[in-house]
Amino acid sequence: MALWNAVASRLARQRSWTAGVGSSRALSSWWHSVEPAPKDPILGVTEAFLADPSPDKVNVGVGAYRDDNGKPVVLECVREAERRIAGSMNMEYLPMGGSVKMVEETLKLAYGDNSEFIKDKRVAAVQALSGTGACRLFAEFQKRFRPESQIYIPVPTWSNHHNIWRDAQVPQRTYHYYHAESRGLDFASLMDDVKNAPSGSFFLLHACAHNPTGVDPSEEQWREISQQFKAKGHFALFDMAYQGFASGDPERDAKSIRIFLEDGHFIGIAQSYAKNMGLYGQRVGCLSVLCEDEKQAVAVKSQLQMIARPMYSNPPVHGALIVSTILGDPELKQLWLKEVKGMADRIIGMRTALRENLENLGSSLSWKHITEQIGMFCYSGMTPEQVDRLTKEFHIYMTRNGRISMAGVTTGNVRYLANAIHVVTEST
Ligand code: LMR
Questions:
Q1: Where is the Aminotransferase class I/classII large domain (predicted)?
Q2: Is the distance from the beta carbon of residue 158 to the nearest atom of ligand 1 less than 6 Å?
Q3: Is 130 in the pocket of ligand 1 (CB under 6 A)?
Q4: 330-372 pLDDT, tens per residue?
Q5: Among 69, 104, 209, 388, fewest CB within 10 Å belongs to which?
Q6: What is the largest CA-CA distance in the chain?
Q7: Residue 164: enclosing H or E segment and its boundaries?
């Protein structure tokens, strides 16, 4: 009797499950509570731009380099590397930590060609999915091995930094960075925040070409920041997404990092080739952590790989091959350095042109920050409402925080852009 009851109830369960599957209610019930995610403040702008049929539209939203005709650029060194790679390599899995050659070359860019830390094998480093992936790996590592810690993030910062540490469940604190009135660095408040943070705090620093403000500390200020970090025993994670884009010289743009290294800090660095090699969609970058000795570096690297394995197993091979081919060949590396400088110089030229156009229009506002800021972005000081007007009335797309991607400004659109900015800033 007991056996019969068990069989009968199983059949009943099966019947009700089958009926449930057949009904549209059951099919639609799994995700009924899912609401659409908010649009990404940066990539959402690109979506809106693409959907606009206007022939006048201008995209100065996303930080992606364009040539003076507004077209995406593939660097000549990348084209040549691709020719060399084509058909000559297999497509096997990379190790969990990625391409050893690419990582070696990448460390030299950040730590210096003759870095003693590299020679002493004190740097734990893995290939990462561009800068985002490098930051995310670090955030996961931080959560796993320093679960009590928080991360101090500048105000403002690249919006995705917040998402990265939120999803890694690391609590976020902020530190002062930008001074709205001067459109420059709020150095005094920054130093106060570094001083007042609990000893041994984690800080996220932009190594150069701060995103979104285009405002970097001077060399002297970096030295003071480094000293204060030392006094407090803080950890610095440098996000270096724009090496070469600030001054046109990757070596010069690594100055902040070199100062921290000279001062004996055990730092972390997130590097990316999205911008400086134009390898946006290849997702190639590197996370490194400077350790006390080789033994510690081996342990840290193995743990970083362990974090990567269940997330994406091992990183993609093609972008890593491009980078190692370019940086491993002296001639191609020279070509790359020339091309990075060319991109940085075009942007600097566009800064001058935008400022001049606004001044020639008789603007009552000061626009000198356009040429004082550095890197890919100009933090214009425009309000979200003014940005909305630019989009609605002029089909100009940019992030609502007033950030202009100078990489999208060209000889062809700079007057149109200046005129539109003049109209919305003079009439509101
Ligand atoms: C940007 O800030 O526009 C870029 O870093 C692109 C991105 O992924 O947000």
A1: 56-421
A2: yes
A3: no
A4: 999 999 999 999 999 999 999 999 999 999 999 999 999 999 9
A5: 69
A6: 96
A7: helix 159-167
- d(C-alpha 166, C-alpha 129), whole Å: 18
- Whether ligand 1 lies within 6 angstroms of the CB of 256 is answered as no
To the query of whether residue 193 is one of the catalytic residues in this protein, the response is no
Q: Which two tokens stand for residue 171?
A: 């609590």
378 three-state secondary structure: strand
Residue-range domains of the chain with CATH: 43-73+345-426 (3.90.1150.10), 94-328 (3.40.640.10)
275 catalytic residue (yes or no)? yes
Q: What does the alpha-carbon distance between residue 68 and residue 52 come to, in Å, rounded to a whole number?
A: 21
Residue partners of 160: CB distance under 8 A and separation at least 6: 42, 132
For 267-382, list the strands marked E by DSSP.
268-272, 285-290, 377-379
For 155, list phi and psi in degrees, rounded to 5.
Answer: -110, 115
Q: Which two tokens stand for residue 204?
A: 């996220």
Strands (E), 354-426: 377-379, 396-397, 403-405
Q: What percent of the chain has pLDDT over 70?
A: 93
31 flagged as catalytic: no
Q: Contact at 8 Å (CB) between 109 and 337?
A: no
Q: Of 374, 375, 379, 421, whose CA–CA distance to 396 is shortest?
A: 421
Report yes or no: 121 and 301 within 8 Å, Cβ to Cβ: no
How far is Cα 205 from Cα 323, in angstroms, rounded to an integer? Answer: 25
Peptide bond into 95 cis (omega under 30): no
Q: Looking at ligand 1, which residue's alpha carbon is closest to its atom 1?
A: 63
Q: What is the pLDDT of residues 216-248, one digit of tens each?
A: 999 999 999 999 999 999 999 999 999 999 999
